[in-house]
């Protein structure tokens, strides 16, 4: 089941933010994340806040139904308008994630987007993305999304090999994600992403190369590739504990990452975040860049997290409790924290070091600067940017990014 939410101070019933959170808001971009917590089945590795019909049965009644979910989420968008007040910012990015957003009717996703547009307005060049399961869309569905204002789509591919998909409990058939890219292009989507996972038990180097070759053959302009993380409480963790499949291996993860970077770079993709590659700056996921750069975003939906001006909060997890709070006229927030200046400094280092542009050395304290000099000497940071005052990871540094970050934050 999904992991527990963090602790924090209570969120006011009206969701009101401290005045400090709204100070200077006009100078920061604003995005919206819209969470759809439904899945047809639960993948064995998944630790996200998602629910199947079986898991919801008897636990929330009509409040937990996906049939009226869009209207419930629209209520939170309207709450956001009240909380943010006269905020003049048009929304720069909208990202619909899950779960499987495309289990809802296309009209529901368009209705959710329309609520953001009606309440806040969208920037002229706004990026509007939805995640999609390859088996839950068809050409007509994609055309309806495009006509409704979506201009970017991300398909969960994970692997091109059937035996790898089986270990992950993925239900789509090999070849379907690649076909979806073509259908999305035909529907008018200029920006298309494919998500991959590497290091699945039983996956070979050849399997991984086959997946990368399939991606290149499909022609997306963005690829995300993540190492498999075995989360406690998942079906995959239980299978590994029982000895049914082997544990994942960090050395294998490193080898697969190097293969991915070699193949994708050779095909014209450039890394812009440790796990993400794009064929151009226009192909980058701007919404994720809001997260990585500490901008403002409102996360609507069960378990969704938000951040505005140094205040971070999170919603109750269960769809029934979420809908119940909004129906009662209360914020669905479960807790929040006000970040100190030191918290924000550390988070900038944690997140921005993962980006191609790196992090300013001016953010580092004395011990962090000393660690950065050691990292430079060890070949983990690029020399040119360092001389210009920025810490930028080398390829080897990307493999050891977590360790480099720990050193730089003192």
TrEMBL record:
Subcellular location(s) of the protein: Cytoplasm
Record domain Radical SAM core: where: 24-270
Domain of life: Bacteria
Stored PROSITE patterns: RADICAL_SAM (PS51918)
Keyword Chaperone part of the UniProt annotation: yes
Pfam families listed in its UniProt record: Radical_SAM (PF04055)
Main location: cytoplasm
UniProtKB keywords: 4Fe-4S, Chaperone, Cytoplasm, Heme, Iron, Iron-sulfur, Metal-binding, S-adenosyl-L-methionine
Gene3D superfamilies given in the database record: tm_1862 like domain
SUPFAM superfamilies: Radical SAM enzymes
Record's function text: Probably acts as a heme chaperone, transferring heme to an unknown acceptor. Binds one molecule of heme per monomer, possibly covalently. Binds 1 [4Fe-4S] cluster. The cluster is coordinated with 3 cysteines and an exchangeable S-adenosyl-L-methionine.
Protein family membership: Belongs to the anaerobic coproporphyrinogen-III oxidase family. HemW subfamily.
Protein name (Swiss-Prot/TrEMBL): Heme chaperone HemW
